[in-house]
Amino acid sequence: MSTADIRQKLFEYIRFADEKKIKAIYVILEDEIAEKHEQWSKEFEDEILRRIDDFESGKDKGISRKEVTKKVADLAKRR
Q1: Within its chain, how far is the Cα of 40 from the centroid?
Q2: What are the structural domain ranges in the chain?
Q3: d(CA 43, CA 7)
Q4: pLDDT per residue over 28-54, tens digit each?
Q5: Fewer CB in 10 Å around end: N or C, the chain?
Q6: Given pLDDT bands bounded at 50, 70 and 90, which one contains residue 3?
Q7: Could you give phi then psi for residue 33, rounded to 5 degrees?
Q8: 45 within 8 A of 39, measured Cβ to Cβ
């Protein structure tokens, strides 16, 4: 059975399962589900927000798409 078939069967099962079974399945997968939702660390989020604030306040002007493309091409050449 393919992964797609298994996924479909699980989806159908969960759609109609009683509340007790849904809660039991969730308890088994709770930590993994939380990890998927917490992809970024607090430090990373803080850094992103700081950079947004710097850009919006004019403290950081950013760089153009052309400059980004050139930097990426230059980095690719080094590899």
Answers
A1: 7
A2: 3-78
A3: 34
A4: 998 888 776 667 788 888 999 999 999
A5: C
A6: very high
A7: -65, -45
A8: no
